[in-house]
C-alpha cells in the first residue's frame, strides 16, 4: 500500500472525478473514497481518466473504499453492498476494503463477511476505520484475519497515542484522515515557523512529519496546483528536533465522538447519512 494518497471526502462527483484524475496524472498511486461520501461514481470516472492520461494500468493504482454503516450485516447484505460499490467505481476489485465505523451491533458479523470477500479474491486486503482500542480488542478476539489498517483522524493536534501504540503492537498500520488538521494545525505558530525555516508550505511540513512518523496519509485537495504541492515532500527531511516540536503540539483530545454518534447512541447528535451528489454519468 502506498503511504501517500488522495482522499475525496466532501467532494461531489464532478469534483471528485477531476481531482482524482489530476492526482493520478501527477504521480499519486493511492485513492481513498467511501460509500458514505456519495462520490464513488465520480471517483471511478476519475480513476479511468487518470489512468488513461498517465499511461498506467489498473494494477498500478491502490484503491480504497469503505463499507457504509447502514449496509453492515451478514454476508449477503455486505456482499450486495460491495458489488454495488464496484459497479459505481467501475472496477473489478478494490485493493483495500475498510469498515467505515464500528457499529456496535454489527461490526463483528460485518467483519466476518469482509473476511469472506477477501478469501473470494474480491478485495486484496481488509481493514477498519475509526476503531478505538476497546472495539479493536473485541474485533481481534473474533477475527481470523488481522485488519491491515485502522484509518483514524491523525494530525499535529490529535495524535491518538494510545490507539497508535495498540495498533502498532498488533502490526496494524494507521492511516490518517484529516492529516492536515484544518486551520488549527495549518496556522499553528510552530508549524508556521518550521514552514519558514524549510521554505515549505505548512501543509508540506505536516505531511512530511507524518511521513517521518510512518503514518499513511490520504490528503484531500480539489485544486491541481495544491494536489501537486502536497506531494512535494520527498526532497527534504525534518530534523529529529523539529519532529519532536510537532509531536509536542498534541492536545491529548480523544478524536472520536462515540457518545454523540447516532450509530452507537440513539440520542446522539451526530448523524451519518450518505451525502448525495450529482451523478456524473448524466
Automatic annotation (TrEMBL):
<feature type="site" description="Lowers pKa of active site Tyr">
    <location>
        <position position="66"/>
    </location>
</feature>
<dbReference type="InterPro" id="IPR036812">
    <property type="entry name" value="NAD(P)_OxRdtase_dom_sf"/>
</dbReference>
<dbReference type="Pfam" id="PF00248">
    <property type="entry name" value="Aldo_ket_red"/>
</dbReference>
<dbReference type="InterPro" id="IPR018170">
    <property type="entry name" value="Aldo/ket_reductase_CS"/>
</dbReference>
<feature type="domain" description="NADP-dependent oxidoreductase">
    <location>
        <begin position="5"/>
        <end position="250"/>
    </location>
</feature>
<dbReference type="InterPro" id="IPR023210">
    <property type="entry name" value="NADP_OxRdtase_dom"/>
</dbReference>
<dbReference type="InterPro" id="IPR020471">
    <property type="entry name" value="AKR"/>
</dbReference>
<comment type="similarity">
    <text>Belongs to the aldo/keto reductase family.</text>
</comment>
<dbReference type="GO" id="GO:0050109">
    <property type="term" value="F:morphine 6-dehydrogenase activity"/>
</dbReference>
<keyword id="KW-0560">Oxidoreductase</keyword>
<feature type="binding site">
    <location>
        <position position="100"/>
    </location>
    <ligand>
        <name>substrate</name>
    </ligand>
</feature>
<keyword id="KW-0521">NADP</keyword>
<feature type="active site" description="Proton donor">
    <location>
        <position position="37"/>
    </location>
</feature>
<protein>
    <submittedName>
        <fullName>Oxidoreductase, aldo/keto reductase family protein</fullName>
        <ecNumber>1.1.1.218</ecNumber>
    </submittedName>
</protein>
